[in-house]
Fold this sequence. Notes:
The complex is a heterodimer of chains A (116) and B (113).
Chain A: E1 5-7, E2 10-13, E3 19-24, E4 31-37, E5 44-50, E6 53-57, E7 64-68, E8 74-78, E9 87-94, E10 106-107, E11 111-115
Chain B: E1 9-13, E2 18-23, E3 31-38, E4 45-50, E5 55-56, E6 61-64, E7 70-75, E8 84-92, E9 107-112
Parallel strand pairs in B: 1-9
Antiparallel strand pairs in B: 2-7, 3-4, 3-8, 5-6, 6-7, 8-9
Amino acid sequence: DAGVTQSPTHLIKTRGQQVTLRCSPKSGHDTVSWYQQALGQGPQFIFQYYEEEERQRGNFPDRFSGHQFPNYSSELNVNALLLGDSALYLCASSLSVGTGEHQPQHFGDGTRLSIL
Amino acid sequence: DAKTTQPPSMDCAEGRAANLPCNHSTISGNEYVYWYRQIHSQGPQYIIHGLKNNETNEMASLIITEDRKSSTLILPHATLRDTAVYYCIVRALITGANSKLTFGKGITLSVRP
């Protein structure tokens, strides 16, 4: 049973460019959340997608956007990249509420994004 | 901001129990305590969660004080593979949504041979 998979594992971009990161949720999961983890810090919540809509959003600018597809996979897009966007981007999947309000989120191993 | 306080680091000997403390003095009645860990170069791994009763699974035990203001994660027989950053998280229950996780800096556990 495959867990959460993310691609690519590493990526190097330059300032001003745009990037797209991809996530496939764990089998049976329908909700995807994205987190940003700077070096030495805990992950910070970016947003969450369920039924192809953004349901919750953290304190991130509009340069960060996302999408969820009918097969529940998801993309994170970041425009006009800044040096400060260098981080590990984590995807977490979970079951929606209705099958039990407290469903743990399960994480992939992330995409390491470096901005030059 | 994270609603939990953890010491920055601790260590324990291999084969001994590791007791990781967490303070969450402002926890609300509908908030659960979650523990995750993150081994170097990997994503966070779910360990256990609880509301007010003690919980145990194949990975660990979670002891929550009666006033719910603090908790302890217990790894009964620590191994070198348990060396990781452990995050204690207070997570709200939101009707109709899978609520976000708010991470702090966690506690770095080092298991020594």
